Amino acid sequence: WDQALRLLVEMVSARVELNTITYNAAVSACEKGDQWDQALRLLVEMAFTQVELDTITYNAAVSACEKGGQWDQALRLLVEMASAHVKVDAVTIN
Questions:
Q1: Is it the case that residue 92 has pLDDT exceeding 90?
Q2: If you ran DSSP here, which 8-state letter would residue 89 be given?
Q3: Nearest 5 degrees, angle CA 57-CA 66-CA 41?
Q4: Any idea of the CA torsion for 65, 36, 76, 91, to the nearest 10 degrees?
Q5: How far apart are CA 11 and CA 91, in angstroms?
Q6: What is the DSSP code (8-state) at residue 32?
Q7: DSSP conformation letters of 54-67
Q8: What is the SS3 assignment for 2-17?
């Protein structure tokens, strides 16, 4: 997860435009590294930079929160997902 975040910083420094796919990879890395707080920080950054949050983004963040025992954050993300009309899939429900 740490390398993924460093890579995002390097991409910005190199003026590479970050998109949903690059952020999703970093959020997923945070989820696998049990870094729920970093995953949520990336979601805030995505919203601030107007990068679209999609089903994959939310699924990885919800999973990160679940693994970290942050049920209130996971539920908040599910509500946010519904409010943003982001499609729920089988991964979201599980």
A1: no
A2: -
A3: 50
A4: -50
A5: 29
A6: H
A7: -HHHHHHHHHHHHH
A8: HHHHHHHHHHHHCCCC
Question: How many whole angstroms from its chain centre is CA 56?
Answer: 8
Q: What is the mean pLDDT of the chain?
A: 95
Residue pair 77/61 in contact by the 8 Å Cβ criterion: yes
Residue 33 near residue 2, CB atoms below 8 Å: yes
* pLDDT tens profile 24-67: 999 999 999 999 999 999 999 999 999 999 999 999 999 999 99
Residue 38's nearest CA partner among 50, 53, 28 is 28
**What tokens appear for 59 in the block?**
């699924």
What b-and-e string marks burial along 31-64, b requiring 16 or more CB atoms within 10 Å of the CB?
bebebbebbbebbeebeeeebebbebbbbbbbbb
